[in-house]
Amino acid sequence: MDKTHIRVLSHLKPKNPILVAGLPSMGNVGIMAIRFLVDSLQAEKYAELYSPVLPDYVTVDDDGLCSLLKYVFFAMDLSEEKSLLMLIGDSQPPAEDSKAYYEICGEILDFMESLNCSLIVSLDGLPSFHTRRAVYVAGTSRRIISEYVMMGAEIYAGGRIIGLPGLLLGLAKIRGIEGICLLSPITDIVSDRDAAFTIYKFLRKILGLSIADKNMLLGF
């Protein structure tokens, strides 16, 4: 493997899809929120992204089976005219290799453009000294920020969004793809499940889905 590539696994034909990306980030909130969503919706695995710019190790499951690091797209139809794609990433590239971040985001965006993606939503954690169950939003236009503020988010102002969740949003903007990043305050930078569930509930709200009870999510 000499370059990043995406392998489609399903015959599903996404229709004007929305992409919600749970990439490695602060508090692991993006990955956990998307796992909650995938499990609750019983979404189908749609495609996998592999890249030589990801770290040089494999994951090993409880049965001893090893797998390359990868990003997995899941898919389901929200309606006859709209599909939902959900992306979970195993790892970010090494922090010192900024070109690798651009390569992975570029491949994701090329794939989304080929599917006529209408909106990209990235997820992240926001370090905080105090527990606060809120959702902040940054976006590619004032209009789209206002739309999600009206749905209950607060504006994330004057800060930075580091790594893949932010870069994916910035590169989407220059390609003319609308996007937002949803951030939830975290007190545990490694794994903040309550913050992840806060974002998960907000995602279900903006997608027009009923709100699942936290206790119904196995493994929470």
Q: Catalogue the unreliable spans.
A: 213-220
Q: What name does the CATH topology carry?
A: Rossmann fold
Q: Strand tally, please?
A: 11
CATH superfamily: PAC-like subunit
In one word, what is the shape?
A: globular
Given helix and strand content, the structural type is alpha/beta
Amount of beta strand: 25-35%
The biggest beta sheet is recorded as: 9 strands, mixed
The CATH architecture is 3-Layer(aba) Sandwich
Count every helix, treating DSSP H or I runs of 4 or more residues as helices: 5
Q: What percent of the residues sit in helical stretches (DSSP H or I)? A: 25-40%
Topology of this structure?
Elements: E1 5-8, E2 18-22, H1 29-41, E3 44-50, E4 58-60, E5 66-68, E6 71-77, E7 83-89, H2 98-114, E8 119-127, E9 136-139, H3 142-149, E10 154-155, H4 164-174, E11 179-186, H5 193-206
Parallel strand pairs: 2-7, 2-8, 8-11, 9-10
Antiparallel strand pairs: 1-3, 3-6, 4-5, 6-7, 9-11
Plain-language structure description:
- This protein is an alpha/beta fold and 220 residues long.
- It has one domain (5-209): 3-Layer(aba) Sandwich (Rossmann fold), CATH 3.40.50.
- Helix content is 29%, strand content 27%.
- The protein contains five helices and eleven strands.
- It has helices at 29-41, 98-114, 142-149, 164-174, 193-206; strands at 5-8, 18-22, 44-50, 58-60, 66-68, 71-77, 83-89, 119-127, 136-139, 154-155, 179-186.
- The strands form two sheets. The protein has a nine-stranded mixed β-sheet with strand order 1-3-6-7-2-8-11-9-10, with helices on both faces.
- Strand 9 (136-139), helix 3 (142-149) and strand 10 form a beta-alpha-beta unit.
- The protein is globular, with a radius of gyration of 16 Å.
- The termini are far apart.
